[in-house]
From TrEMBL:
NCBIfam families: PTBA
GO cellular component, one term: cytoplasm
Pfam families: PTS_EIIA_1
BP GO annotations: phosphoenolpyruvate-dependent sugar phosphotransferase system
Name of the featured protein: PTS system IIA component, Glc family
Location of the PTS EIIA type-1 domain: 31-135
Signal sequence, renumbered to the chain: none
Organism: Lentibacillus persicus
Keyword Cell division part of the UniProt annotation: no
UniProt-listed PROSITE patterns: PTS_EIIA_TYPE_1, PTS_EIIA_TYPE_1_HIS
């Protein structure tokens, strides 16, 4: 009985869709930085509305001045980049409203930002939103991507991390 107390447990973390919409595989994203997984593996979502929610419990570690992306560190150490649309850095923050600050602790499903989806569709090359694990090589974890086709923010698991 005591043996079970000290047994190493497999730590598993679910990463939920941060936006509502159609899930697409990362290799289908029309940008080589994401489709060739230069920043890391993950999935993408074609958003159906302009709200971004925390995909897991963790800490906000990065918000660029242009507000087009947000970086989080999950409680298990996984670093997640949520990049709203493609070529959105050139919008210089226009159309984005961030609700959190770097250093804030967040909970799964908490609203992180809103964005004007119509404005993004009109002024960016794409509204597709990559969700990428940027430190997979350093974590010692195995990441599994979903096969789901539709994502509901805070409900649909899109990536699972597990100790190797």
């Amino acid at each position: 009985m005591l043996k079970n107390l000290f047994k190493k447990r497999d730590a598993k973390t679910d990463i939920f869709a941060p936006v509502n919409g159609e899930i697409v595989q990362l290799d289908e994203v029309p940008d080589p930085v994401f489709s060739q997984k230069m920043m890391g593996d993950g999935v993408a979502v074609k958003p159906s509305e302009g709200k971004v929610f925390a995909p897991t419990d963790g800490e906000v570690i990065q918000i660029p001045e242009t507000k087009h992306a947000i970086g989080l560190r999950a409680n298990d150490g996984t670093e997640i980049l949520i990049h709203i649309g493609l070529e959105t850095v050139s919008l210089e923050g226009e159309g984005f409203t961030v609700s959190v600050s770097t250093g804030d602790r967040v909970s799964t499903g908490q609203e992180l930002m809103t964005f004007d989806l119509a404005y993004i569709r009109e002024n960016a090359s794409s509204d597709v939103t990559p969700i990428v694990i940027t430190n997979a090589q350093e974590t010692g974890k195995q990441y599994t991507m979903t096969n789901e086709k539709e994502g509901k923010a805070g409900e649909t698991v899109i990536i699972t991390s597990q100790d190797k």
